[in-house]
Amino acid sequence: MDLSMFDDSIRFIMMLQDRLGVRTSASGGRMYLEFLDILHETRTEHISDISSMEKVGSLLRDYPDLLAEYNAFLSEGFSINSIPDGSKTLVILAAPFGSATYQYSQSKLEEWTFTPLNQGRNGSSPTFLRCTCRLNYEH
């Protein structure tokens, strides 16, 4: 890791601690520790990069500025964004092979959509296919 990336990492961690209120809020402290656990799982390869992005997106969905900063640490072609939409929040993961949108309502995952990017029949034109899943928490 070069020195500028190290400096960016430290700056991001300090921003994360400040925005989550780590020093003043128990819930902020729990979120911060959960974030560090996700990084550890990714670093030790217990979870994939995509799973890591899903977990970070879910954890920081109410902090679009932090997710925008987090993008600097993702591999080229990958991104994660959060968009508040009234009472719902959309978290969008993009990767070279497709994108996924997660819709949260009242802190629960309500729906997700995955759009893979597949090669078209002639091998040169991409075709997008869509898959949607709606989650129901009622029993």
From TrEMBL:
Pfam families: PAH. It comes from the Eukaryota. Signal peptide: none annotated. InterPro entries: PAH, PAH_sf. Its main location: nucleus. One of its GO terms (biological process) is regulation of DNA-templated transcription. Keywords: Nucleus. Transmembrane segments: none annotated. It is found in: Nucleus. The keyword Lyase does not apply. One of its GO terms (cellular component) is nucleus. This is Uncharacterized protein. It comes from Schizopora paradoxa. The lineage of its organism: Eukaryota, Fungi, Dikarya, Basidiomycota, Agaricomycotina.
